[in-house]
Specification:
The structure is a single chain. By secondary structure, the protein is of the alpha+beta class. It has four domains: 13-48; 52-69 and 326-431, Efflux pump adaptor protein, beta barrel domain (Elongation Factor Tu (Ef-tu), domain 3, Beta Barrel), CATH 2.40.30; 72-98 and 290-322, OB fold (Dihydrolipoamide Acetyltransferase, E2P); 114-288, Helix Hairpins (Orthogonal Bundle). It is built from five helices and 14 strands. The two termini are 98 Å apart.
Length: 461
């Protein structure tokens, strides 16, 4: 006993009469220690051969599976001044509901009749296009008239040339006739003179022949001058033909130039009209942007801009909306040395903050309060924190994740690998070796590989 009292009960109670005392008093402490040691050794030997599931641990948080399901900031495309709020934090909104109304802050858009005035400019430019069309039609008609007039004028000059040629031919014949007459008159004068010298002809007859000779010679010279005039006239008509061709060609060229100028002005007016229409459309769309609407169905989670009268710039976050319908996922980060061990659809165990759990990482089936998942995506590029991001989706074959789970909840994750004995896992950790790369269900003798081989690189001499 404890012997804390001076009064002993050994005189009244005999311990040897009790079976429990006799049982404990008869046992040998050395044998007991040996027995306990053997039992402990046997238990340790059994324990080291118990299967242990290798795993990769990681911390992360709850997110959504798809990008469009994650919290979305609402921004203003244009600069403006906050005039009115239609929602507050916690409100549920449908897609297209009005959230905020802003007013204009740029002096280029202060005119209340800006759209109507721009529409007037568009109408005026459109009418100018019609006038240019009419001008082009008139110029083309004028061009056709000039070409017809040129054809008639050239035909007229050509007829004059033909007539002149005919006159030259007639005058040439007449000139030959006058030349013959002149030669005859000269012969007659000579014979009459010879006869006058012999006294056979009178002086009057001689003078008559001389006068006739002079008259014929004068007619011959007149006909010769007439022929030269006709030849000169032919040359003038040919020059007139060339000059007429050049004059009308200049008129045609000028008219074509006017047509091209009108077409160019028409295209310029059409371009300006398109610019004005574009500007008008921009003004109309800008007025629609004064009311900022919800991009999706969801809940207003946070308002970044507060109050009214505050100026905002384009692209500035105003508030945040959490979509109402979303698929949960877990985002964790693993070390680069663990990334080659992971595959899509690998099983994971998840512990969420706020949900009680008892976790045994090596025996996930014995843990309670944890949930299952599968690897949905692996990043191909390292993150800024020096780790790789892994996205885990719920395992539909296992129990569902908690309904009250929200985006942003902290998560502790175990990515399950190969089952090995405990002694092997202890030995691996003591030596700092990584977990086994190959899985038990992989066929290493098949000779198949997912890695694409490259052609050998040829040496360059």
């Amino acid at each position: 006993m404890l012997n804390i009292s001076e009064n002993s009960i050994s005189k009244f109670v005999k311990l040897s009469n009790f079976k429990s005392y006799q049982y404990l008093n008869d046992r040998d402490p050395k044998k007991k220690r040996v027995y306990n040691g053997i039992v402990i050794i046997i238990l340790l030997l059994i324990f080291v051969f118990v299967p242990w599931t290798q795993n990769i641990k990681g911390k992360g948080y709850v997110t959504t599976l798809l990008p469009e399901q994650r919290p979305q900031p609402v921004q203003s495309i244009i600069s403006g001044r906050l005039e009115k709020w239609y929602v507050r934090e916690g409100n549920y909104v449908n897609k297209g509901d009005t959230l905020i109304y802003i007013t204009e802050v740029k002096n280029d858009y202060f005119d209340p009749n800006l759209i109507s005035r721009t529409q007037e400019q568009v109408n005026a430019k459109s009418e100018s296009i019609t006038s240019y069309d009419d001008k082009v039609i008139a110029l083309k008609s004028q061009l056709a008239s000039i070409r017809e007039s040129r054809m008639l004028k050239l035909e007229q000059v050509r007829n004059k040339i033909i007539q002149t040629k005919n006159k030259i031919e007639i005058d040439s014949i007449d000139l030959n006739a006058y030349k013959i007459k002149y030669e005859i008159a000269v012969n007659q004068y000579k014979r009459t003179k010879e006869l006058h010298d012999q006294g056979l002809k009178s002086l009057s007859e001689l003078q008559e022949k001389e006068l006739k000779q002079q008259e014929v010679y004068a007619a011959y010279l007149s006909q010769q001058n007439k022929l030269e005039n006709q030849k000169n006239m032919l040359i003038n008509f040919k020059l007139e033909l060339s000059s007429t061709e050049q004059d009308y060609q200049q008129k045609i060229s000028k008219t074509n130039s006017d047509i091209q100028s009108a077409l160019s002005a028409k295209l310029d007016a059409r371009s300006n009209t398109s610019k004005l229409k574009n500007q008008l459309s921009n003004y109309q769309q800008r007025q629609n942007l004064y009311y900022i609407t919800s991009p999706t169905n969801g809940y207003i989670t946070k308002t970044i801009k507060k109050g009214t009268g505050q100026l905002i710039k384009e692209g500035t976050d105003i508030l945040t909306i959490m979509p109402a319908n979303y698929d949960l996922a877990v985002e964790i980060y693993v070390k680069p040395q663990d990334l080659p061990l992971l595959r899509i659809n690998d099983h994971c165990r998840l512990q969420f903050d706020g949900w009680p759990a008892m976790v045994i990482s090596g025996w996930p089936e014995k843990s309670t309060g944890i949930f299952s998942g599968k690897i949905f995506a692996l990043d191909q590029h390292i993150s800024n924190n020096g780790k790789y991001r892994v996205l885990i989706a719920p395992d539909e074959k296992d129990k569902r994740w908690p309904e009250n789970l929200r985006v942003g909840t902290g998560t502790y994750t175990f990515i399950l690998l190969k089952d090995v004995p405990i002694w092997y896992e202890l030995w691996r950790n003591l030596n700092g070796f990584p977990p086994d790369f190959y899985r038990a269900n992989e066929d290493h003798n098949s000779g198949e590989s997912d890695v694409k081989t490259k052609a050998p690189i040829k040496s360059v001499k």
